[in-house]
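Query structure, 198 tokens:
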């Protein structure tokens, strides 16, 4: 099997694990603490075939949305608010686009990109809520209220109750897992075997 094909299979397997992580963290009510943003970042930085880089995170999100909708009490395709999904998927595509522009995959760059794309996701998806629903008045105070409401579930002393913070923490944690696992797999699988002397 060619090296590119092996890399793509391993990358697809790592991103598939992101689906499982989202199902588990939603089941544990760690809302927004999942690997989808990290998989978009990882795919954009590590997959050479850019069509595949954009496809895998979106496919990851769609499959996990479908699973959650069909087999749990989490509603992912939520009727009158379906327009918000375009902003959610768009935010992950934008994360992938940002990742394709990153030239160096060292720890500091990945950390900054994880935090930055987490903030971008929060800004884009809350803008989507503001624009596609009538939950807030369509003026500046409504927009501010929408962004303030995007930080809910916060309880003093409970770090994982902040919806917005969970997205950033999830990006950092799962980026470390994905990029770390990838570095380990590359080291084990793709290093040339040493020639044995006769």
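Result returned for the query:
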């Amino acid at each position: 099997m060619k090296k590119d094909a092996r890399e793509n299979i391993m990358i697809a397997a790592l991103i598939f694990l992101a689906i499982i992580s989202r199902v588990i963290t939603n089941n544990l009510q760690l809302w927004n603490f999942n690997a989808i943003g990290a998989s978009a970042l990882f795919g954009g930085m590590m997959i050479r075939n850019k069509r595949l880089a954009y496809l895998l995170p979106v496919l990851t999100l769609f499959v996990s949305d479908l699973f959650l909708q069909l087999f749990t009490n989490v509603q992912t395709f939520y009727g009158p608010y379906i327009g918000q999904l375009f902003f959610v998927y768009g935010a992950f595509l934008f994360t992938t686009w940002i990742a394709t522009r990153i030239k160096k995959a060292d720890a500091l760059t990945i950390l900054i990109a994880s935090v930055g794309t987490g903030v971008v996701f929060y800004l884009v998806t809350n803008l989507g809520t503001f624009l596609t629903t009538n939950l807030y008045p369509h003026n500046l105070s409504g927009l501010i209220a929408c962004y303030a409401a995007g930080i809910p579930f916060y309880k003093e002393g409970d770090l994982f109750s902040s919806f917005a913070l969970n997205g950033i923490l999830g990006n950092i944690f799962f980026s470390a897992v994905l990029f770390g696992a990838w570095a380990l797999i590359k080291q084990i699988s793709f290093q040339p075997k040493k020639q044995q002397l006769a």
